[in-house]
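Let's do one together. I've listed all components of the complex below, 344 residues spread over four lines.
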Amino acid sequence: MEHTRWLDEDEQQTWRAFLAAQRLVSDKVERRLQAAAGMPQAYYEILARLSEAPDRTLRMSVLAESALSSRSRVSHAVARMEESGWIVRRSCPTDRRGQLAELTDEGLRVLEAAVPDHVESVREAVFDGLTRDQQAALREAMEAIVAHLSERPGWPVTGDSGPDGPDAARAS
Amino acid sequence: MEHTRWLDEDEQQTWRAFLAAQRLVSDKVERRLQAAAGMPQAYYEILARLSEAPDRTLRMSVLAESALSSRSRVSHAVARMEESGWIVRRSCPTDRRGQLAELTDEGLRVLEAAVPDHVESVREAVFDGLTRDQQAALREAMEAIVAHLSERPGWPVTGDSGPDGPDAARAS
DNA sequence: TAGTACAAGATGAACGCTCAACCATTCCGG
DNA sequence: CCGGAATGGTTGAGCGTTCATCTTGTACTA
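Okay, and this is what the predicted structure of the assembly comes out as:
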């Protein structure tokens, strides 16, 4: 690493707008979801993915990936939601390491009760402020970023620093 | 509230892309800042605002607003950074309720040491994935969202639920 | 000049997330 | 078929954020 590729004026403004929009939107959405349904966005995401899955069941690792969460996060979250009775865990028949997370009826009810207000808050936070063209452009840009970040992302996408420490036994 | 204004297919995809890009970008940037400088993004933001202010000094509330943080967050964060010797707090001469936060020389050094790698990570996460046109469009959309969210935002922008609880003594 | 409303900050508990370990199981090369 | 590496998932400590509350100080109004 030698010299920094600084941001020009335009890029600075773009980055600031990105940051601001990001914070404003997720604050608003998160806060409202918390108030209305008593759960953070990450939990909602998990419940949503499960509800779309066959048998409302997913392996923990698949769940983590599809909800863009680290394994650790999902593990904690599912444990918590199991206590609430929204999810049950069973061990996977074909791979004895694996765990299956299944959405319970109760969990589905809670999710469905949360959806309408959540959707409304997303609309207010994002779409009510955009023209149709702006929305299309936003989508294109976001998808480009995601695509760029999903190929060879420096170190793994999901984080979680690997099974052992940063460099354990990895020599030779 | 009667019927929900659901998201159509296009809006769904836009929202998912927004969420994904948001998570991917802030994960990457946050993680790298933490690794390289040992501070979260929110702290960086605070230090950055202070460094741009006259006398590297800002009132807590102004600092909170300009860093898009809640008062409470800034209070905790500044307390922590004061222990690290990056910031000092003085009471405000003109308003004895107020506190002034000033960036120390040490704090400025730490910030400046953190900047280059942070900027690089932002470039990699965002700008390397976008054409110039996409970047301009992204900026426009983000600014539209921010503008929309900054006027009459339902309840106050910064959060923090007000001086007293949700409805304390407020009756008649 | 009270008295009441409001603003600025601080604070502690609750909570979710991350990081670094750790155990169990499966995969794979010799 | 054995032994090391990789995979799947969990766990606990540490930390930052939020929420509700409190204290102190200012502003407004009667």
